[in-house]
What we know:
With 223 residues, the chain is an alpha/beta fold. Helices cover 29% and strands 26% of the residues. The protein has a six-stranded mixed beta sheet, sandwiched between helices. A three-stranded antiparallel beta sheet has the order 2-1-4, covered by helices on one side. Strand 6, helix 5 and strand 7 form a beta-alpha-beta unit. The longest helix has 16 residues, at 176-191. It binds adenosine-5'-triphosphate. The site of adenosine-5'-triphosphate has 11 residues, from helix 1. GO terms for molecular function: ATP binding.
Amino acid sequence: xxxxxxxxxxxxxxxxxxxxxxxxxxxxxxxxxxxxxxxxxxxxxxxxxxxxxxxxxxxxxxxxxxxxxxxxxxxxxxxxxxxxxxxxxxxxxxxxxxxxxxxxxxxxxxxxxxxxxxxxxxxxxxxxxxxxxxxxxxxxxxxxxxxxxxxxxxxxxxxxxxxxxxxxxxxxxxxxxxxxxxxxxxxxxxxxxxxxxxxxxxxxxxxxxxxxxxxxxxxxxxx
Length: 223
Ligand SMILES: Nc1ncnc2c1ncn2[C@@H]1O[C@H](COP(=O)(O)OP(=O)(O)OP(=O)(O)O)[C@@H](O)[C@H]1O
């Protein structure tokens, strides 16, 4: 697959914001060099502007491994990744600092992203409102519930308005109201031409996705 020439279904001459071709990955287990577990056996996928795609697979099928390779947090054994936009990544386990409040996290991440104070203020207001956790603005991370921590995790990935948002099991800890808010947010991003890749071991609402891929036997198979 060539990221610059392949057209999305129904689209002509668009460039994917993220493309993976022939991704392979194995992990070594134990001390013996021969004991390797081949997890990915040639994963191909492309994410187009304005698309919401689901990558679905059973526990242990390699979803988080794909995600980490896509964001560059883990090297692949073989294959290529092409990225053409700003990436936002929301890992399965929130990476936060226990002693910092939600507001302090936003400040820290906004500075790391190089955002202006005005952009930070606007983005913070929008995210707190969209996910409904403004009342926890001054609460330390170690005092947040699991669901609110998941909202902070998602909010921090969304802060710089990335072209591509990669979410690893994003709604596992959400209550129903937050689940619906989450999908509103995803729909807004799609309308704005942003792309979202969601990985999960289950998909309850297939119609909310533009496409689904099943991760099976180390490959991503269109459903
Ligand atoms: N760092 C590692 N070292 C060795 N094996 C690993 C490592 N990370 C993952 N694995 C193995 O690779 C396989 C795929 O793991 P991965 O976490 O990518 O799957 P997953 O589909 O995200 O699973 P889950 O749905 O349970 O989160 C599993 O068998 C796991 O034990």
